[in-house]
Hints:
Layout: H1 3-14, H2 21-29, H3 35-50, E1 53-63, H4 92-104, E2 109-114, H5 121-137, E3 141-145, H6 151-159, E4 164-166, H7 176-179, H8 185-197, E5 201-203, E6 206-208, H9 214-226, E7 231-236, H10 253-266, E8 271-274, H11 278-282, E9 295-298, H12 309-318, E10 322-323, H13 329-334, H14 355-358
Parallel strand pairs: 1-2, 1-9, 1-10, 2-3, 3-4, 4-5, 6-7, 7-8, 8-9
Helix pairs in contact: 1-3, 2-10, 3-10, 4-5, 6-8, 9-10
Residues 67, 69, 71, 74, 76-77, 115-117, 147 line the site of iron/sulfur cluster.
Amino acid sequence: xxxxxxxxxxxxxxxxxxxxxxxxxxxxxxxxxxxxxxxxxxxxxxxxxxxxxxxxxxxxxxxxxxxxxxxxxxxxxxxxxxxxxxxxxxxxxxxxxxxxxxxxxxxxxxxxxxxxxxxxxxxxxxxxxxxxxxxxxxxxxxxxxxxxxxxxxxxxxxxxxxxxxxxxxxxxxxxxxxxxxxxxxxxxxxxxxxxxxxxxxxxxxxxxxxxxxxxxxxxxxxxxxxxxxxxxxxxxxxxxxxxxxxxxxxxxxxxxxxxxxxxxxxxxxxxxxxxxxxxxxxxxxxxxxxxxxxxxxxxxxxxxxxxxxxxxxxxxxxxxxxxxxxxxxxxxxxxxxxxxxxxxxxxxxxxxxxxxxxxxxxxxxxxx
Length: 368
Ligand code: SF4
């Protein structure tokens, strides 16, 4: 393709216009569209809204496992045989300690994640206190991923000062029954709409590599455009042993980067995050994900390990990006407690988190 083709892609997106489904399909599937100029076109858009900033997100599984739902991709579901550590709600003290740690590790946003279909009102009341206390102590945004919530609960969370609510659409409407039977796609959309209605920012993402086709991926990106998702974490399925869902053969670094570019073209101003599977599926091309995406997770994912802090921060710095944090990236890299656990070992190996990774504040953070 001529240079003008790629320039036009960027311009259409920057103008706020959408791309035709045929063109979206070509971006995903056609070798006529070359990867490097495509990434550059996506980067022009990223640069307009996010400059060279990378936002660091750190997840805290405040409740892990024991979920009555059957999401086939999730190690915490009732049908998963994955060997993970299960625990109910962490104590208030532990959650606060972990928020402090996240802040000191450069987090722009701290994400509190719960297993389960959704919280009762007592859990919402506990969350209100946690949100208020974290925000009063640390200059850091808070995101909560509580599962399905009612419009009334959305109001309470908004009044508590919550910045953002996460509820992923995960896949397309058509494909949803293939990945979950205990709740519906519309259940998910209703929670997202309730959050939007009260003025919460919405984080809603997808998981690529669960048997969906190109049309499904395009539909996901367009759905998130239509609901005006503020934040879009794009996960690439991690086939943890014991999950009913098996590894997809379609994932490659080239395909993954095309997916990220497509989401950027269709959601130009969104906080687009390269999420789970970054290390596993992008391998030596991992750094290229920063050109369409402006944020990532540090400290791995819910139950799977990711790269060490040091490797991730070094990658950001070496590629000429900056982190948006109270902390300077060099200070973080030079900090004596920086995590350098060498899971930067086998990129093709899936490593589950252990107790010390899921409850980090119970342990000291000496470099290992
Ligand atoms: S509802 Fe959440 S925690 Fe439960 S199985 Fe589905 S994704 Fe996992």
